[in-house]
């Protein structure tokens, strides 16, 4: 019940295309769903986050879509750029912030020029 | 503002040896986390400190792993004796409180041979 399942494991997109990464969870106590971006040799950095009281949150080219009934959420990267090439992790926790975060296994995104 | 500092960046040891990692969190951050990130997986929380007290160490293999945060600032994570399966990146993160964003260090890559 503590798992967050993420797919795909890897993704290759052309510059200007849309990158979509999906996550699913089982624990209905989860109340906060952040996405992290990690470049090689660096620690993860918070990218965008959503709470289940909204179905979508947009920040620049990054959008989270949230489906509470299906217990799924996804990250959309519009107009993908080579600089977006990184590993993306979805995560969840019961109360917001950084405590008790459970991470997905990650998606390695490659954006070709 | 300086980020989370970790050392060393890389460490190679033989199995059954001991190793220690050091973390200096962002100044003023009361909450400190140690995560283990095995290749191809998301970070897994090992231990969370609030000031110098342990909040959560439920996933810390206490027979071989130990951590301390003296004076509520710097922290060390120790493994003794190391096993092959301990090969991973060990990430330290800090946040103002458990309810705010965590900032990650660059990690220490441990290889046990």
Indicate the topology.
The complex is a heterodimer of chains A (113) and B (113).
Chain A: E1 4-7, E2 10-14, E3 19-25, E4 33-38, E5 45-50, E6 56-59, E7 62-67, E8 72-77, E9 86-92, E10 102-103, E11 107-112
Parallel strand pairs in A: 2-11
Antiparallel strand pairs in A: 1-3, 3-8, 4-5, 4-9, 6-7, 7-8, 9-10, 9-11
Chain B: E1 5-7, E2 10-13, E3 19-24, E4 31-37, E5 44-50, E6 53-56, E7 65-68, E8 75-79, E9 88-95, E10 103-104, E11 108-112
Parallel strand pairs in B: 2-11
Antiparallel strand pairs in B: 1-3, 3-8, 4-5, 4-9, 5-6, 7-8, 9-10, 9-11
General description of the model:
The complex is a heterodimer of chains A (113) and B (113). In chain A, the strands form two sheets. In chain A, strands 2, 4, 5, 9, 10 and 11 form a six-stranded mixed beta sheet that branches. Chain A has a five-stranded antiparallel beta sheet with strand order 1-3-8-7-6, with no helix packed on it. The relative contact order of chain A is 0.34. Chain A is built from no helices and eleven strands. Chain A has strands at 4-7, 10-14, 19-25, 33-38, 45-50, 56-59, 62-67, 72-77, 86-92, 102-103, 107-112. Chain A is an all-beta fold and 113 residues long. The radius of gyration of chain A is 13 Å and the shape is globular. Chain B is an all-beta fold. Chain B is built from no helices and eleven strands. Chain B has strands at residues 5-7, 10-13, 19-24, 31-37, 44-50, 53-56, 65-68, 75-79, 88-95, 103-104, 108-112. In chain B, strands 2, 4, 5, 6, 9, 10 and 11 form a seven-stranded mixed beta sheet that branches. Chain B is globular, with a radius of gyration of 13 Å. At the A-B interface, loops of A face strand 5, strand 9 and strand 10 of B.
